[in-house]
Amino acid sequence: MDKQYDYLIVGAGIYGATFACMAHRQGKRCLIIDKRNHLGGNIYCENIDGINVHKYGAHIFHTSNKQVWDFVNSIVEFNRYTNSPIANYKGKQYNLPFNMNTFYQMWGVLTPAEAQAKIEEQRQEALERMKADGVTEPRNLEEQAQLLIGKDIYEILIKGYTEKQWGRKCSELPAFIIKRLPVRFVHDNNYFNDRFQGIPMGGFNKLIDGMLEGVDIKLNTDFFDDRQHWEQIADKILYTGKLDEYYDYRFGKLEYRTVRFEEEILDMPKLPG
Asked: Are 175 and 143 in contact (CB under 8 A)?
């Protein structure tokens, strides 16, 4: 029996929307469903007092592929935003990712050679501490990070953020989580190495809406509320939801972590500057 759709796409985030867009342009019959009441998944934006607020955390689009960049810009114009984070540690500010500006702020060094020497000195100190404990391989993330970058950068720029992110002490996290830490011995505060980056003018909703033009959509629709029905209406399913839920938790639940968002509207031009 000929099914109603060629593809059922479960999840209206950027991956599902991109697939639906490409399949639809090739004449495929697509239905995209999402249990939320909006499109876009975690890149959904809500306009609050004229500000496009990223409801699930800030997202910056970046790629080195010109074909990809031209494609998204054919749907919506992107701005020229450059992601240059600044960490605030006990009232002092440090540039991220680690570069010569960071090393000057931390140690007052002026040349790559001075920065490399300082990092190597602290790496050797971390190695000696491990040897004194009779340890030959890092036992946890804390030891691994200090072997890579030294004590100062670890304690100021890695430890607190990592423990907040994982909800555990770095000494309780496995070493394999951090295999490398990017270090730049140039004065470059750009977080990404990609050729192109930016945010859609007017928010990510315009990108998603543009990609899903002409595609059938059902929101407030949970695939698992009537899984048998949804599996029968399309030849193939593209599922972008929780992996453990798809397999009915037969191997247990994955330990997903999330974040809590707090919003406050302040009557001022800019808070961080």
From this structure: yes
What is the phi-psi region of residue 9: left when phi exceeds 0, alpha when psi lies from -120 to 50, beta otherwise?
A: beta
Neighbours of 65 (CB within 10 A): 11
Pairing of strands 5-10, 234-239: parallel
What is the Cα–Cα distance from 104 to 26, expressed in whole angstroms?
54
This prediction has a pTM of 0.86
Q: Rounded to an integer, what distance in angstroms lies between the CA atom of residue 240 and that of residue 32?
A: 11
Report how far residue 208's alpha carbon sits from residue 221's, in angstroms, rounded to the nearest whole number. 18
Q: How far apart are CA 226 and CA 197, in angstroms?
A: 40
Distance CA 70, CA 229 (A): 38
Helix axes 112-132, 141-149, angle to 10 degrees: 140
Q: Where on the phi/psi map is residue 227: left (φ > 0), alpha (ψ -120 to 50), or beta?
A: alpha
* SS3 state of residue 89: strand
Q: Express each pLDDT in 40-82 by its tens digit.
A: 999 999 999 888 999 998 999 999 999 999 999 999 999 999 9
Contact between 42 and 172 (Cβ < 8 Å):
no
Read off the pLDDT of residues 187-243 as tens digits, 9 standing for 90 and up.
999 999 999 999 999 999 999 999 999 999 999 999 999 999 999 999 999 999 999
